Amino acid sequence: MIHILAKHWWVLVVRGLVSLIFAATAFLIPELTFAILVTLIGIFLLADGILATYSGWRLKGEDNDWWVAVLEGLIGVGLGIASLAYPDITAALLVLFIALWCLLTGAFEIALAIRIRKEIQDEWQLAFAGIISIALGVLMLVQPSAGAISIAWWVGFYAMFFGLLLIGLGIRLRRWLPSEPEA
Q1: Residue 118 has pLDDT above 80, yes or no
Q2: What is the mean pLDDT of residues 130-154?
Q3: What are phi and psi of 123, to 5 degrees?
Q4: Which of 19, 54, 125, 178 is the most exposed place for a label (fewest CB within 10 A)?
Q5: pLDDT at position 92, please?
Q6: Do the beta carbons of residue 171 and residue 122 sit within 8 Å?
Q7: Mean pLDDT confidence for 75-93
Q8: Rg (Cα) of the chain, in Å, rounded?
Q9: Is the pTM value of this prediction over 0.70?
Q10: Which of 13-22, 90-99, 151-160 has the highest mean pLDDT?
């Protein structure tokens, strides 16, 4: 499994970069109107879901649990489409969507980290991303009445840490690729 992940290391880096771009937007323009915030979150969820689905699909035939990554991605795609299709969604429903996505993504990331712990050192990066995801999901469920700016900052911090951890993992996985022979 690790060789497949290493072969597509760039997908993790792209997911990380998308997360960092979203985080920068959340920090630099926190007073976005709620409709724009919903749109940005929808785009983020959709882009991350598409990339996660692609990663999982590439594992098909190589790993029996490929469907877990595809499921994670499809959940992100579904939540992203729902956010974009209904921009007038209520704050409570938005918080619930994001919290659900964070909880599920976190659980999948921790499960994957446990699964690959014998194949890669320092799998803590993926597990830590999962813990951060779950913590944010719980926080959003406990404080559903937070304002749009608070949500933007919470999600911005999450996206920043998530992005940095995914980029770090992607770069580490790239090192697993066999070196090309010199000409």
Answers
A1: no
A2: 78
A3: -70, 0
A4: 178
A5: 66
A6: no
A7: 79
A8: 17
A9: no
A10: 13-22
- Both tokens of residue 95? 């918080």
Q: For the segment 146-164, what is each residue's pLDDT rounded down to a tens digit?
A: 655 667 787 788 889 989 9
| pLDDT mean across residues, the chain | 81
Buried b (16+ CB within 10 A) or exposed e, 84-102: beeeebebeebbbbbbebb
- For the beta carbon of residue 122, count every other beta carbon within 10 angstroms: 11
Report the distance separating Cα 37 and Cα 83, nearest Å: 10
Q: Is 126 exposed, middle or buried (0-12, 13-18, 19+ CB in 10 A)?
A: buried
Instruction: Tell me which residue has tokens 């659900």.
Output: 100
User: CA-CA distance, 75 to 53, in Å (whole number)?
Assistant: 9
Query: If residue 37 lies in a helix (H) or strand (E), which one and from where to where?
Result: helix 34-58
Separation of alpha carbons 50 and 45, rounded Å: 8
Helices (H), strands (E): how many in the chain?
A: 7, 0
User: Domains of the chain: which residue ranges?
Assistant: 2-174
SS3 content of the chain, % helix, strand, coil (to 5): 80, 0, 20
**Residue 131: both structure tokens together:** 């813990």
